[in-house]
Amino acid sequence: MCFQLAEEERMVQKTARDFARKDIAAVADEANRDGVFREEIYRKLAELGFMGMTMPEEYGGVGFSNLSLTLTLEEISRVCPSTAIAVSVHNSLANYILYKWGSDSLKEKYLPRMTSGEAIGAYALTEPNAGSDVAAISMSAVKDGDDYVLNGSKIFISTGDKAGVIIVIARTNPTGRSRALTAFVVEPDFPGFSIGRVEHKMGMKASTTVELVFQDCRVPASNVIGEEGQGIQIALGSLDGGRIGIAAQSLGIAQTALDETVLFSRERVQFGKRIADFQATRWKIADMGTNLEAARLLVYRAARLRDSGHLCTKEASMAKLFASRIANEAVYDAMQIHGGVGYTEEFKIERFFRDARVLEIYEGTSEIQRIVISKKILEEYEQMYPA
């Protein structure tokens, strides 16, 4: 499949690349070293339209394609993968869920605030005993008059302490699985909501990751997304976009690993010649480049399918599985070629080595992706060759 980019997509790609290389690069090293979430960066991203990329103009968005969002996340991730996390969650999950399943009143109330950058979106699904198994969510939501009362906690929530709009999945039926969960919009100033533990992570340090605590948190019944009992459908139905987002992030990290490797190997001299002239180095570069191009085709294909309205669950999982793996392989080989200096903070590859590891964990582990992919393939074969 050929991925000839449209003029609009090339424009978006260039704008994202220029902004990342100038504005984000100026603060990325410091922000990641000190673990600082640079809110001014997101305000600038919003001014450029990057916080409402796939949303229609009526809600303040720019109405671009999912592939345009993918290109944006890739370019940002080449400089600061931490920044790309918030942009991905905001667009691929929070904006998308509200637009696809939210009532007209919810869209009118929240989407303009989100596309303008006034409110960053977060997505609260994971709990201490519910990660890959979404149906195991235990946080309760009990109807009380015109409100729902939420009790429980969510963990590992990206940008949860910076968000103005949080999509929360909670249990409205104490028994059952398929119709037991409901999605809500929660604002941080709702009574009973608070920020709990702040995680200290191996990488992605300029993106905050926190626990959200709900103690008799009152949420208006009008803030239910979709219908009561539709939560698991919403949660699973939004994962394709989130997985394409992480796959795009993986592309950016892998591209930077290749860039840094080629530049370093052309300058580093050992045994009287550049290490770029050694076969061992060249083979690593060949594998990095080939894997990156293969991953890019998978990721762009998934984004194109999503734009066309076709179901892309298998393709999104394939893109996420492969791109996250080759990104980790790329940073590993890049550090090996850099040698001892690559292990120091002086070189960019040290930060990207740490950032890459989570790619195979969040938005569904590699093991979960294999479950999804194999299930879809077996279903396809069952249709083609029924027993």
Q: Which characteristics define this entry?
A:
387 residues, Butyryl-CoA Dehydrogenase, subunit A, domain 2, 11 helices, 3 domains, Butyryl-CoA Dehydrogenase, subunit A, domain 3, alpha+beta, four-stranded antiparallel β-sheet, four-stranded mixed β-sheet, 10 strands, Butyryl-Coa Dehydrogenase, subunit A, domain 1
Q: Can you offer a commentary on this structure?
A:
The chain has 387 residues and is α+β, with helices and mostly antiparallel strands. The protein folds into 3 domains: 113 residues, Butyryl-Coa Dehydrogenase, subunit A, domain 1 (Orthogonal Bundle); 108 residues, Butyryl-CoA Dehydrogenase, subunit A, domain 2; 147 residues, Butyryl-CoA Dehydrogenase, subunit A, domain 3, CATH 1.20.140. The chain contains 11 helices and 10 strands. The chain has a 4-stranded mixed sheet with strand order 1-4-5-8. The protein has a 4-stranded antiparallel sheet with strand order 2-3-7-6, covered by helices on one side. The protein is globular. The model has no long low-confidence stretch (mean pLDDT 96).
Strands, helices and their partners?
Layout: H1 7-34, H2 39-47, H3 66-77, H4 81-101, H5 104-115, E1 121-124, E2 140-144, E3 147-158, E4 165-171, E5 181-186, E6 193-198, E7 209-220, E8 224-225, H6 231-237, H7 239-267, E9 269-270, E10 273-274, H8 279-308, H9 313-338, H10 348-356, H11 366-384
Parallel strand pairs: 1-4
Antiparallel strand pairs: 2-3, 3-7, 4-5, 5-8, 6-7, 9-10
